[in-house]
Design a protein that fits this description.
Elements (H helix, E strand, L loop, with lengths): L2 H7 L4 H8 L1 H12 L2 H15 L10 H25 L14 H5 L1 H7 L1 H7 L4 H12 L4 H8 L3 H16 L9 H17 L2 H7 E10 L11 E2 L1 H14 L4 E8 L2 E8 L2 E11 L2 E8 L18
Parallel strand pairs: 1-6
Antiparallel strand pairs: 1-2, 3-4, 4-5, 5-6
């Protein structure tokens, strides 16, 4: 039974009420840990199964306890997910989410779930990722995190410091206002629609990198493509090979402006961008159909 159906059938049960009240938070924690909505949902199911066996009268901080269960389950799944990635065909990108309007309005939340940040989190070891997410994103205390990852508070401080330095060295240099991000995405869209390579080059940073994720189910570049001219040739070459008409439209994915692509009227993929100083420095195109199930309806995320 899913957590939603359980909530409907046992709406007066205290355990269910607490779980439902914190569900969006737990999903956000699991998603930031895993980069996969499908795996995050599985983690929530596992969390629920453990939560219903807990004696609530013995739990002082129910929110913290639920986050602890979720993080531990996510850590277990993250380790198995890493093994799956080793056999993944081509490049692996996080699963994009069509997010509710409030996510984009919360700058801190939007940055934490942006595709650029999610890719940075992918470079952390599992425990480092858990510590960083809980400390830097959700502002949990060192003692709470220590109890979650089975480390001492002193060790957690060291891990947090190391992870923060690692992330700061790789994250975008500064947060991009939504208006500036929208303008860059619109410029990119116009450039592709006009088919003018120079117009596209004006939008791309010289060292732009394109990463495609087809998962072996759709054609995509097996390795990252770097350099503005190379990326422009690849994009226009791919569009030219399409026998079906390609259409791009603005959308909001992971709290940021993005593009949804349709090929012959059918959903083909989601393109998100990393934008710095008004130019596109990263292009991330998810074509794997198994990762496009959460772009048809909005997903609620929260830090609280």
């Amino acid at each position: 039974m899913s957590t939603e159906s359980t909530a409907r059938t046992e709406s007066t049960d205290p355990a269910t009420e607490v779980f439902v009240a914190h569900r969006n938070l737990l999903f956000t924690v699991a998603y930031e840990m895993l980069g996969s909505a499908a795996d995050a949902e599985d983690v929530l199911q596992e969390t629920w199964l453990r939560w219903v066996d807990v004696d609530l009268t013995q739990i002082r901080e129910q929110r913290a306890y639920l986050v602890r269960i979720t993080t531990r389950q996510a850590l277990n799944r993250l380790r198995s997910l890493q093994r799956r990635k080793e056999s993944y065909v081509g490049q692996w990108l996080p699963e994009p989410l069509l997010t509710t309007p409030d996510v984009a309005e919360d700058a801190e939340l939007a940055e934490s779930v942006s595709m650029a940040m999610m890719l940075v989190l992918e470079t952390l070891a599992p425990t480092e990722r858990a510590v960083f997410v809980l400390r830097e994103v959700f502002d949990f205390g060192y003692e709470e995190i220590a109890a979650t990852v089975d480390k001492t508070p002193a060790a957690v401080r060291q891990i947090a410091h190391r992870a923060r330095k690692h992330v700061d060295a790789r994250r975008p240099r500064q947060a991009v206002p939504r208006s500036a991000a929208s303008a860059a995405v619109e410029s990119f869209l116009r450039a592709v629609e006009t088919g003018d390579p120079q117009t596209l080059l004006d939008v791309l940073a010289p060292d732009v990198v394109l990463i495609g994720d087809g998962g072996g189910l759709k054609q995509a570049a097996l390795r990252p493509i770097g350099g503005a001219e190379t990326v422009a040739r690849f994009l226009f070459g791919g569009i030219g090979k399409n026998k079906l008409p390609l259409s791009l439209a603005p959308t909001v994915v992971n709290g940021a402006p993005a593009l949804v692509a349709h090929l012959g009227g059918e959903l083909d993929g989601i393109m998100t961008m990393r934008i710095e100083d008004g130019l596109v420095t990263g292009l991330y195109y998810v074509r794997n159909p198994e990762k496009l199930t959460r772009v048809l309806s909005e997903t609620a995320l929260t830090l609280r």
